[in-house]
Amino acid sequence: MSRANISMSNNTRRVLTLATLFGVSFAAWSAGADLGQAQKQATNWTAIGMFGVFVVFTLFITKWAASKTKSAADFYTAGGGITGFQNGLAIAGDYMSAASFLGISGLVFGSGFDGLIFSIGWLVGWPVITFLMAERLRNLGKFTFADVAAYRFAQTPVRSFAATGSLVVVAFYMIAQMVGAGQLIKVLFGLEYTYAVVMVGIIMMAYVLFGGMTATTWVQIIKAVMLLTGATFMAVTVLFQFGFSPEALFAKAVEVHSKGDAIMSPGALIKDPISAISVGMALMFGTAGLPHILMRFFTVPSAKEARKSVGWATTWIGYFYILTFIIGFGAIVNLVQNPGEFYVGGEIAKGLKGGGNMAAVHLAKAVGGDLFLGFISAVAFATILAVVAGLTLSGASAVSHDLYATVFKNGQASSEDELRVSKITTICLGALAVVLGILFEKENVAYMVMLAFAIACSANFPVLFMSVLWKDCTTKGATIGGFVGLFAAVALTVMSANVWEAVLGNPKGSAPFPYSSPAIFSMTLAFFTIWLVSILDNSEQAKKERALFPDQLIRSETGLGASTASSH
């Protein structure tokens, strides 16, 4: 593969200039549900200072990564040179986001035991990736999951679908991150919403443009270590208050919480079983369809390392979710007993300052004072940078590799051209994220997150699953089934109460679709369409595709002919 010489002149100056813009962000993709229009608070200089140190440090890592990013392979996959342990920690960094840290601990704070439904959904999704996908992805793919889905199919239709699905998922995931960042920044940093969103966009683009996947991976790893350290300290201090007895903690929480014993019972968040199953399916199978997660399996040198990375990711994620559970109950005990400091007007009925998602942040102040609050705030803000950088990189790869190089150039594009298109796309995606983040400032972002996961499990996952594991799958089946799943997920979400009533302003009870998530319907429809269209397709092209399945199976299980790590 030819190598593009990327000039590093003036990059130091650019990096240092960008470092001064550190005011940036954090957030949970579940943030919008109860955050609303957060009130601007006094400027938290401790948090800003700590965050500034993190940004400057990671931008120097980006400068180092840029010196190693000489080809498209380096840019997309870090040259395949990331170890299983490093990749596992980076994947965990994607998941241990503000969504988990603030969102799940906030749900546990508000609803008790039932708040774990989201963490269980995600965690159960990992064995699917481990046993069905990780090894095959590494052996069949190169840069994107479309490489895998289109392995034995006609390239243009399958890659066009894969790029469309990826970009839609990335867009909605990114909007949620940017909006949440801006809203929460008012509470934690005391900065204006617009400035916050613009700064997030600028620093994120710096990571991706200069350092590609190498920089994005190391930023994720550093952030993951910081978040694990902070969450562990919080959980230990909470348990210390009760002699390290979880039973005593839960008993005290039941005693002080307004709902009493109800917080230890399921059914507080999602009452109807169809919605519960659908949400669980979206979280579980959506994980195996997220483009920025799937990309990570191409950063390791072998299928063995891919399996190892999932094992490490599951370990860290599982440990972290236990911590969020303790943090949620710890927040109940510590915050409810001190309403004057943590509740609006000192009244519990008016809710927490900054909304329910701020429970973990307030607990940080309760157990560690202003200094620890600054640390947790800085880590939370750093989280969004890493997540958005990963999203941007997966979006850029969908455009440059799947559309430009394969569809438009018929696979004839040089590494230099592909890299150039990636960087142009990165700037466009960054600008789009900033604009959408500003436009959606007042919107509820929770539905956008659900839409992202519903699309991932209804469009990307069925196509990936069937193309790899079912010998009779054809180009027509994969493309038509994928687009049917994509449109069904979007349409049903728009017709749900989350959008129809809350966003579009229609009367309460008028939503045509009565459930919280469309996944159980749209995913089933996608699988059925892929099966039906494929078995009805008896064209010569379909016969050739079926004949290629044994070769695909051998490569997916043995790795013969798979890409290897590039030298640096």
Description:
The structure is a single chain. The protein is mainly alpha-helical. The chain has a single domain, classed as Sodium/glucose cotransporter. 71% of the residues lie in helices and 0% in strands. Helix 10 packs across helix 17 and helix 11 packs across helix 14. The two termini are 13 Å apart.
Structural class: mainly alpha
CATH architecture tag: Up-down Bundle
Number of discrete domains:
1
Main pleated-sheet profile: none
- The third-level CATH topology is Sodium/glucose cotransporter
CATH class, named Mainly Alpha
The tally of helices reads 23
Distance between the termini: 13 Å
Low-confidence stretches: 1-37
Average pLDDT, rounded to a whole number, is 80
Radius of gyration computed on alpha carbons = 23 Å
User: Strand content of the residues, in percent?
Assistant: under 5%
- The level of helicity is over 70%
Assembly classification = single chain
